[in-house]
Amino acid sequence: MPKVFAIVDCNNFYVSCERVFNPTLNGKPVIILSNNDGCAVSRSNEAKTIGIQMAAPVFKIRHIIKKYDVQVLSSNYALYGDMSQRVMETLSGLVPNMEIYSIDEAFLDLSAFRKQDLIEYGRKIQKTVRQWTGIPVSVGIAPTKTLAKLANHIAKKSHTAKGVVNLLALSSLDSILEKTNIEDLWGIGHRYGKFFNAHDIRNARQLRDLNETFIKSKMGVMGTRLQQELKGIPCYHLEYQPAPKQGITVSRTFQKEISNFDDLDSAIANYASRAGEKLRLENAVAQIIVVFLLTNRFRENGHVSFETVRMPVATSDTAELIHFAGEGLRMAFKKGRLYKKAGIILKAITPDKPIQATLFDTKDRSRSGKLMQALDTINHRMGCNTLKYAATGLSPKQKWQTIFNYRSPAYTTNWQQLPGVV
DNA sequence: TCTGGGGTCCTAGGACCC
DNA sequence: TCTGGGGTCCTAGGACCC
């Protein structure tokens, strides 16, 4: 029995989250900025229309912001994370099986609804999510994930579709694929787009009908799968259980370059501490910690240094992670360099039981586990950083701290910041 | 002056083992 | 002691995603 895939994608997700709690943003050009208010990472349709590109640095678009009175907001991840959860919960009540694909997208299995009017079902999804969460979504329906993504892309652009497109209703996809630029396909990025264009392969139909050996030689099996999926033969299926993480990264760009070791040391301690929280959320431990330092890549002579530390025993204990991260930092640090970004990566991640202990392990593992549990509980209940390690820095103002100058309140996750009715 | 953060998968090549 | 071939594992780098 052929499958029916749908993808539900929240429109301009971060902007839409802000609009739910601040309706004065409706109808206006709005952008949401990345950390340190650096780039525009989410744009309302109005902002797209006046030419603001994805990831455009703010300093390069100041004139547009001023000219069109663009509403500018810092990222508010607590809000977006919470809104995402609400959207996903709503969707899970509407279909038997779904895969959460990203913060603002989910693949659904609509195979059971094939006899119904799928467009109508798509509208029901749209309407329910809008009603329950306030978030507008688009729905793409097709026989494969890749085609569903394409359907969604069309749903967002077309004026007649009103946000729902079903490619199963078409007898032939030829003309749709012909109108689709190759770069708009899921799996074709900047590099491949350029490559195929240089070979005069510009639309999705051309790619679908391309010689299989050629595409395999250029793109490997990913190319073969993409081609199959465009032909309507599914290669990717729904993944219900999120796969265990292979790596956990915590990194930040600094607003101003940092050359002082102690500042970097407390920044790295913070990242280690945050990474430990993520690790414990996965009920996992890590054995390898990589520390990296980057100088400004937009200047000449950009440097990157990575240092790997293999810890004697795999752990999720914050104190240990801070200790070994510090060791990595001492190896990576070079006096006199101006660092723009720093981070850590945890690797060799395994479930936290059983831990492979060494003969020389002197640490009381069960005690440290209880301590971490208490730490996480308190920080979850009282707000993050209620309890923290001194190594992460005691002064409230740190050089490495990320700036959010235009942040909206934590409407949904903080009692002090609930929206009031006036 | 000012340019985000966190992931995945695949492949080629080297190390190592039998 | 020398030699060949094949399998497996690991890693770095490149591509992609949101």
Notes on the protein architecture:
The protein is an alpha+beta fold and 422 residues long. The protein contains 14 helices and 12 strands. The chain has helices spanning 13-21, 45-49, 58-68, 77-92, 118-133, 145-157, 174-178, 190-198, 204-208, 212-219, 221-230, 261-281, 318-332, 365-382, and strands at 5-10, 30-33, 40-43, 71-74, 98-102, 105-109, 137-142, 164-166, 248-258, 284-295, 304-315, 339-351. The strands form 3 sheets. The chain has a 5-stranded mixed β-sheet. Strands 9-12-10-11 form a 4-stranded antiparallel β-sheet. The protein has a 3-stranded mixed β-sheet with strand order 3-2-4. Strand 10 (284-295) and strand 11 (304-315) form a beta hairpin. Helix 4 packs across helix 5, helix 10 packs across helix 11 and helix 12 crosses helix 13 (318-332). The model has no long low-confidence stretch (mean pLDDT 93). The structure holds a DNA duplex (18 and 18 nucleotides).
Q: Order of strands across the biggest sheet?
A: 5-6-1-7-8
- Tell me the span between the first and last alpha carbons: 55 Å
Portion of residues in beta strands equals: 15-25%
Q: Which consecutive residue ranges, at least 5 long each, have pLDDT under 50?
A: none
Shape: globular
Mean pLDDT over the residues: 93
SSE order: EHEEHHEHEEHEHEHHHHHEHEEHEH
Number of helices: 14
Largest sheet: 5 strands, mixed
Cα radius of gyration in angstroms: 24 Å
Total E-strand runs: 12
The secondary structure category is: alpha+beta
